[in-house]
Amino acid sequence: MRCAIIIPAWSPEDIFPAKTAAVQINYWEPLGTLYVATAIKNAGHEVKFFNGAFMTHQQIMADLKGFRPRFVGLYSTTFGWDKANKTASDIKKIFNDVFIAVGGPYPVAIKGACLKEADDIDAVVTGEGEITVVELLARLDEDRSLSKVHGIAYKINGNIKENRARKLIGNLDSLPFPLRAFLGDSDKCVPAPAAYRKTPVALVITSRGCDRKCIFCFQIDKTRQSKIRYRSIDNVLDEIEICLDQGYREIKFIDDTLCADYKRALALAEGIVERQLDFTWFASAVVNQVDEPLLRAFKKAGCWAILFGAESGVQKNLNAIKKGITLKQTRKAVSTAKKAGLTVFTSFIFGIPGETFEDGLKTIEFACDLNPHFANFHALTPFPGCELYDHADKYGSVSSNLADYTYQGAAFVPQTMSREQIVRLRQTAFRQFYSRPLFILRQIARLRNLHDARAAFTGLKSLIWIWTGKDLFGKKSDMETSFVSSVKVE
Predict the structure, then answer these.
(1) I want to staple 231 with a disulfide (CB 3.0 to 4.6 A). Which of 172, 334, 354, 466 is the partner?
(2) CATH number assigned to the domain comprising residue 296
(3) pTM for this model (two decimals)
(4) Is the same domain home to 235 and 287?
């Protein structure tokens, strides 16, 4: 069957303020979509991949006319749902007999409810797409009923039927490595300028799931089993070797909790050294899951940077989001990582339930005192399916505008703060953190090559806009955004 896998067209300005998008945007490899496209191809189907990060909507439609697919798989985030819906509608205007399924974080979270507002989407894939979509295609190819395909919701005779959830894949080593050839030019997919050292950059995930309890994060695993599923270390190293053979020079590990299993994380670093794999890499970790021996092992294996989710400088706020860490642990992790020679990134969020504006100012003070190499300051975003979204009336109010669900648009406002205060805190935080003489001098000292110089120049331009732009992180649509005590997407 001829299959088109599509990420609808989008632009950086859909997510970030236009003046700072250049320093914030991440053109990551769409790893989850690649896994599904690879599984479809391995099942014997003809597959064409359309990446809307680098194609306009018009270009996608024009190419589809020539390809003439029988099946279209659309990817959708929460903020991109309207684009996915429009893409489906425009495709059906061209091919009214094509079968369109949608997957991604938003459909997985709300399942069959998507179909109530999407006239031109025929099915929703609600999890484990590598198996579910292949089974779905086999049924379509044989013109058989979809009633036995676990992990989908679909339309039949004008009604919406939601099938049984698919069992989670137990052996992740059974999955084929994602075919990055679908992406074309590998140099297009890069993190933000300061968040990589070498190109091309490949994304690798060594596990699926998260056993943390943060109220703002949705994980499909949490609704079925509270544990992490791991790939074997050899399987991960084999994929890395393939990436290096294809010319990739840096790896970004995107596990939610790479260090949740301490011995496994150490074994990964040791395996890289034993196989003499030459590449730089970037990882994320929870602050209470690392220590100096592990971080030094990371450094020895080529790790140059690590991201910690610090989230807040006020302990009661960390407790409110069930982060499971302390300020003391954050200080120790950042200090230890710097001691090990790693570049440290930290993320913070404003708009936590119960947080006040004064708490936000304390978080800014904490971030500056913590002195990581880089810090990002987000608005708390309660994605559909997470505890905060499902019980919003308990904590505050959520936006009914899905375009706000980007970490930028203050999609949630606690009862103790206003939307305007969250926006003001973000701008104040970026101003204070990146205007410190200590930060500026350190950046100058770190300049080693043309890439470093370009990243620094891009950051400087953004800093100027942060200082001169009034309400830089607000959107024109903000005034039109409505908030309700609890939004249920039905």
Answers:
(1) 172
(2) 3.80.30.20
(3) 0.88
(4) yes
